[in-house]
Amino acid sequence: MRLGRPCDDRPMGASLPDDMWAALGRWVFEPITVAMLVAIGSAYVAGLVRARRLGRPTSARRWAPFAVGWLALALALVSPIDAYAEVSFTLHMLQHLLLTLVAPPLLAIGAPLALALSTLPTGGAKALASALRSPVARVIANPVVGWSLFVSVPIAVHASRLFDVALGASGWHAAEHALWVAVALVYWWPIVGVDPSPHPVAYPVRLLSLLLAMPAMSFLALGIYTADSPLYATYAGLPAPWGPRALHDQRNAAVLMWVAGNLVMVLAMVLVAVSWKRHDDEAQRRLEAREDAVRATT
User: Fold this and answer.
1) How far is residue 27's CA from residue 25's CA, in Å, rounded to a whole number?
2) First to last CA, the chain
């Protein structure tokens, strides 16, 4: 366990044991990261408590996914995954998948904005509602914008020096994490989220967005896998045992991106299809109820 990252000049990975059981103790408690996680969790729990006091308890279908999403975020940022992402591209990829494909959609399903609108004081709720109607919110909620960012940012980061730069500088690494999460939230919120949106997305468009994201992710994974040498000098230059197996580790990371990434997309498509069916069934029931009411009055 350590608080923060080392500030000395030791090679990255020099203090990390190449032993699974020893690795389990390498938790990283960055003060800013921990404060952020505590703030997110506390704010949501406070909303749940206030909603219950107001007689509007939140369904487990909302708070349970949010809780799992929060745990995924914590797992990616403070567990040994974060420590070993410095020396293993495979674990770095796992971290990025947690930050982009697991935590954001689950947080979105938790409907935190709807919870805030129903539990904030009147002034705060009005301010949030106004922000959701703003031009910026309309642009962010546009599925084309979300898809474009979700597809282009990973390619731009992995195909440039940005990835290597982030490996060597803790500040840039933190900024990279923030970028991954922000882009993923912009993408997933209108796809699987149930919060009020200035740009509601039809279910067929949601499915198309998920379908089109899969080949883009596969293209990037293929590019990483077929490289005949390590793409990132930081990993290749690590001391043994990390550096000498950088190419093998890189290919494992590409396989993880392709398999796990596409599996998440397929599961998301199933979830959207089920939600679409439920939405249509509810609409049909309301229509039939209105017709029955009309017949009863005639």
Assistant:
1) 6
2) 74
The pLDDT tens digits for 188-228 are 999 998 888 888 899 999 999 999 999 999 999 999 999 99
Cβ neighbours around 208 below 10 Å, total: 14
Length in residues, the chain: 298
The answer to whether the CB of 180 falls within 8 A of the CB of 96 is yes
* pTM for the model: 0.89
Per-position DSSP letters for 157-206, written without gaps between them = HHTSTHHHHHHH-HHHHHHHHHHHHHHHHHHHHHHH--S--SS---HHHH
Per-chain mean pLDDT for the chain? 89
Prior bond of 241 cis (ω within 30°): yes
Owner of token pair 């001391």: 239
- φ/ψ of 28, rounded to 5, equals -120, 110
Q: 265, 217 in Cβ contact below 8 A? A: yes
Which two structure tokens, joined as six digits, stand for 86?
Answer: 């410095």
Q: Where are the domains of the chain?
A: 20-297
Structure tokens that stand for 152 in this block = 């282009």
